[in-house]
Every structure is written in structure tokens, then in C-alpha cells.
Amino acid sequence: MNCARVRRLLYPDPSRCEVTVEHAEALAHLRACDECRKTVEARSEWSRELKASLGIEPAPDRLRRKVGAIVATPRSALLSRRAMQVGTAAAMVLAAVAGWLGNRASSQAFFRSICEDHAKYVNGGSQLASSDPRQIESWFRDRTDFGVRVPLLESSELLGARLCFLKKRKAALIFYRKDNRPVSLFQLNASDVRLNGLERSVIDGAPLWRMSYRGFALAAFEQRGVVSVLVSDLRESELLQLASTARLRSAGY
Q1: What is the pLDDT of residues 221-235, one digit of tens each?
Q2: Which domain holds residue 9?
Q3: Domain assignment present for 80
């Protein structure tokens, strides 16, 4: 098993990975490879520090107010003639919680499918090979119902693009390479995409959303009705910085 495969399998922390035969092989490799061990230890430490600094995303204010109102209701009131009203309110809160959790799970599943598409095309698969952002944007003009923006990313090589479909949603897929690692930029119409299944970060005063899945890091942002999603096996901090750069450069169009 090579080093790149080991690092993907053990991302972001060996103790949190699914236990499989490959997982055991990866741990054996880790014990014998000083370079991989240092990389995994540094990555795990950074992930812990990032989560500690970002804190926990709170539930929506409306939901917290409703739950707080139910918790604060005296027991005597529950036994009064208003019991039915309170019960109805509680049912509404539970329905709201269930709906929120359902939307979050659906959102997570969608973004996991984006990571899987990145893996599918990780070795290329461009329909248009080009390093010219304007040529790629022009190629997408008659193929999508939204404006595609192709930012130049710092220390990254622009390779080309293709049209793809993410759970029946049409998306532009743009290929880059940074430090010899493939980076995918997906862009799609924001009208039916929910970011609430991701963890929220703020960089340079602007929100970015992030997650990790099967050794890949994902960072997303919304701008002018278009959701942009970057995926790679780079460190999460590097990918968030790339996403911040992409957001700023896209805003300059």
C-alpha cells in the first residue's frame, strides 16, 4: 500500500476511521513509515485545533426559541386546559426538528456524492483541456443555465473542464493541480442546494462551509446564485484557503 493511499484512508484521524482490512494494512504501514506517521500526526493535531477554535454551529434561533418555550412550561400548565395546545406546539417543534435533521442528512449525502465524483475523475477526464479561464467559461456558456466563473488559484495549474451531473443537477467541473495533487472545482445553480449539512467557518469575514469524507476535504461557498465546491486530498486548511481565494477572485468578475 502506497503512502498516498494510507494518508487518504487515515484522514483526518486514524482513531475515527472505519475499521476494515485496508484500515489495518494502513496502520501497519504507518508504524513502519516515519514520513506517513509525521504527516498523519500533524494532520490530526491540526484538525483538532481547527474544530476547537471554530466551536459548534448552533441550531437556528427559531428552533431554539420553540424548544426553550416548551422546556420552560410549568408542569401544572401541562395539566391544565392548555395541555392540548402545548401538546400541539410540542408536536410542531418535533416536526421542525425532524425536518431540520432530515434536510441536514440530505445535504450531507449530496456533498458526499460530490467527493465521490472527484474520486471518479481524479485521473483526468476533461472534455476540454485548457489552461485559459476565458476559453473554459465560453465553453460552458451554452451548456449550463448559470454563469461559470473560472478563478486562477494560487500555486495551482488549471488543466481543463467537463460537464457533469450531481444527483440530476447539471454542474460545471473544473480541474486543477496543486503540489501534484488533483483539485476539483464544482459549480452549480444554488437554487436547490442546501449548505446546512456542512460545518460553517468564517475566513476574511465571509462564510465557508466544509466537511471531510473518505480522505477528501471539501470547502464550499455561495456567490451570485452559484454554489462553488472545492474537493481535494490536500490538508483542510490548504483547501479552505484555496476556497477563500476562489471566492475573492470570482467576486472580481
Answers
A1: 999 899 999 999 999
A2: 3-54
A3: no
